[in-house]
Amino acid sequence: SDYYDTSATLAGTEDYWVVEDWLTHNLYVQYEFESGRMEGTRLRVGARNITNEDPPLANERYGYDGSVHSNRGRWWYATIRKEF
Predict the structure, then answer these.
(1) Whole-angstrom Cα distance, residue 79 to residue 22?
(2) What 3 state SS string does 4-64 have?
(3) Bridge partners (DSSP) listed for residue 43
(4) What is the rounded CA–CA span in Å between residue 24 and residue 37?
(5) Cα 1 from Cα 68, distance rounded (Å)
(6) Segment 20-73, tens digit of pLDDT
């Protein structure tokens, strides 16, 4: 949810800057082989931050609060797992 950035105040007031809430969505699909040569293998493909949301503005070195948010944007990944 929103929180106050106590290192910044609004111009002309003593009110703290409000860092807006931030919501991202992740998605993945996977398939597990249950027989044959690939038995025990799982394939997974997914994306994090699928809507490519930028982090909310904060009074920090890079313009966002890295202890709470990430500037990574959307990123894709794929994994293969094999059980023996």
Answers:
(1) 27
(2) EEEEEECCCCCCEEEECCCCCCCEEEEEECCCCCCCCEEEEEEEECCCCCCCCCCCCCCCC
(3) 31, 80
(4) 38
(5) 11
(6) 999 999 999 999 999 999 999 999 999 999 999 999 998 888 889 888 899 999
* Phi, psi (rounded to 5 degrees) for 17: -70, 135
Nearest Cα to Cα of residue 28 among 13, 50, 53, 5: 50
Residue 82 tokens read as 């094999």
Domain ranges across the chain? 3-82
pTM of the prediction?
Answer: 0.71
The type of residue at 2 is D
